[in-house]
């Protein structure tokens, strides 16, 4: 199966923070892959903008190194790389001053689509938006792309939204969450709404519970000072996991249209019930004493250089959605650093048949589970019951119906674009379906803030857990007391 590549019209893209880590790991390699695929016309212009004083050739050398480090060898074709580098330009700029802005304005063609990617600290979002407006680059075809965090609470999120809205309309603001660009996340909508097989069963009558897991093997690394002011709740639950929850739980939109989809997601967030203290478990990873990796010898408190830190590197919680579709079906969310394996998945566990005609004593074997794997090895897996082959009566066994994208779609179809590639192209096309709207962000913080305020008032310390484990012991009890268990964390 060969995927279709639909070229876009020539455009101008300005990447603020073009010398930073995100630009080198994701943005520039992703843009090259889209150029290699024939989606980006050679008449387009990609302009790097940053504080660093460098000429165009130095920036192109940086981009070449990024392609070498982060693009597969099969796509490192010298002629294509040279053609891509000719699309690049560079301007040294002061985000909070006036230096470089006249030069940048002269390079941007406001007669065609121009996008401005804010790959910078959130404190610079406002100054950049204001200067784009002042230097007349905030025209009707302008779009701005802003990275998370979108504030750190409801008050700061509202202030940020107001700042951006002072210079750009909502349809020009693209709040990017790379999780929504993953192929499997989008396939979740296709599975639900394009197949009669699942949607009639997608409710509390047939779904026992839902688990969403985002596990990482790494610690906070060099992000210690930032992460200690954030924690797993702000860094992962409030945005990435909230978006996954919305896509699972939302009602069918009237059309696959940006605002129709985001309207339904907003209804889910507003229907989330307050989380009770007994339904939350927070943890901090300990040092891994038996690991040869020097970095793993440090625990969370050492990594953030704050022995009194009460910030969580792990969180597990149980949520309920107060609507007709999901009343009584719990959603279990967990995410953490330094866990057993790197994996992200959504598991929908269906209820057992109301009556079994087979002589089976282990009821857990009768559960059908739909697993959507986000990483690694993107794909879907449906566990069903069949008869165990061989003579000797009717013995049931659970087997997976497995759809790995790499196997099901063949070599060409398995060459799945990175999430950033897809999302940047959506910005150029003007498609906001996979981007968060301002009221979504504020609603998510309105639900999150009381949870954080609650444990701050109680003065709770996160529970320690061993690096390389599945998290704190109390997280197991969160499920066990409901007669359920977490899925094993494994790649």
Please compute the radius of gyration using only Cα atoms.
24 Å
- The coarse silhouette is globular
Distance between the termini: 26 Å
Order of strands in the sheet with most strands: 14-13-12-11-7-10-9-8-15
Please name the fourth-level CATH homologous superfamily of the largest domain: Dihydrodipicolinate Reductase, domain 2
Residue stretches low in confidence (pLDDT < 50, at least 5 long) are none
Considering DSSP H and I runs of 4 or more, what fraction of the residues is helical? Answer: 25-40%
For the record, what CATH class of the largest domain applies?
Answer: Alpha Beta
Counted up, domains total 2
Helical region count? 16
Strand content: 15-25%
Structural features, described:
By secondary structure, the chain is of the alpha/beta class. The protein has two domains: 12-147, NAD(P)-binding Rossmann-like Domain (Rossmann fold, 3-Layer(aba) Sandwich), CATH 3.40.50; 180-414 and 437-480, Dihydrodipicolinate Reductase, domain 2 (2-Layer Sandwich), CATH 3.30.360.10. The protein is built from 16 helices and 15 strands. α1 crosses α2 and α10 packs parallel to α15. The longest helix is centred in the C-terminal third of the chain and has 21 residues, at 438-458. It starts with 11 loop residues before the first strand and ends in an 11-residue tail after the last helix. The model has no long low-confidence stretch (mean pLDDT 89).
């Amino acid at each position: 199966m060969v995927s279709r590549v639909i070229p876009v019209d020539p455009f101008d893209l300005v990447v603020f923070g073009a010398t930073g880590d995100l630009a080198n790991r994701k943005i520039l390699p992703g843009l090259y892959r889209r150029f290699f695929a024939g989606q980006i016309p050679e008449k387009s212009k990609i302009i790097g903008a940053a504080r660093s004083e460098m000429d165009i050739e130095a920036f192109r050398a940086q981009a070449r190194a990024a392609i070498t480090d982060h693009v597969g060898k099969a796509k490192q074709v010298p002629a294509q790389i040279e053609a891509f580098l000719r699309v690049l330009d560079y301007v040294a700029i002061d985000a909070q001053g006036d230096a470089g802005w006249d030069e940048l304005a002269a390079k941007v063609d406001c007669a065609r689509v121009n996008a401005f990617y804010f790959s910078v600290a959130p404190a610079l979002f406002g100054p950049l938006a204001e200067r784009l407006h002042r230097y007349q680059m905030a025209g009707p075809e302008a779009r701005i792309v802003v990275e998370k965090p979108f504030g750190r609470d409801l008050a700061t999120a509202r202030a940020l939204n107001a700042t951006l809205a002072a210079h750009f309309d909502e349809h020009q603001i693209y709040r990017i969450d790379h999780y929504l660009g993953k192929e499997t996340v989008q396939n979740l909508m296709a599975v639900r709404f394009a197949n009669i097989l699942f949607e009639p069963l997608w409710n509390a009558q047939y779904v026992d519970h839902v688990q969403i897991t985002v596990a990482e093997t790494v610690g906070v690394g060099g992000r210690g000072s930032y992460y200690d002011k954030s924690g797993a709740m702000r860094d992962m639950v409030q945005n990435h996991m909230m978006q996954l929850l919305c896509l699972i739980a939302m009602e069918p939109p009237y059309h696959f249209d940006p605002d129709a989809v985001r309207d339904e997601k907003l209804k889910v967030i507003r229907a989330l019930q307050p989380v009770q203290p007994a339904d939350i478990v927070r943890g901090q990873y300990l040092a891994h004493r038996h690991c040869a990796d020097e970095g793993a010898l440090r625990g969370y408190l050492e990594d953030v250089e704050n022995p009194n830190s009460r910030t969580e590197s792990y969180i597990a919680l149980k949520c309920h959605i107060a609507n007709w579709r999901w009343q009584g079906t719990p959603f279990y969310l967990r995410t953490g650093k330094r866990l057993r394996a790197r994996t992200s998945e959504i598991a929908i566990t269906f209820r057992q048949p109301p009556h079994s005609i087979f002589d089976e004593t282990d009821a857990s074997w009768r559960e059908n589970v739909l697993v959507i794997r986000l990483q690694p090895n993107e794909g879907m897996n449906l566990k069903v019951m069949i008869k165990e082959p061989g003579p000797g009566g009717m013995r049931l066994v659970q087997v997976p119906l497995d759809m790995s994208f790499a196997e099901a779609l063949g070599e060409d179809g398995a060459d799945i674009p990175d999430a950033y590639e897809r999302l940047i192209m959506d910005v150029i096309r003007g498609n906001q379906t996979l981007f968060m709207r301002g009221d979504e962000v504020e609603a998510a913080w309105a639900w999150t803030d009381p949870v954080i305020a609650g444990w701050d008032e109680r003065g709770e310390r996160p529970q320690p857990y061993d690096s390389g484990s599945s998290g704190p012991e109390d997280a197991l009890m969160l499920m066990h007391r409901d007669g359920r268990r977490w899925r094993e964390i494994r790649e």
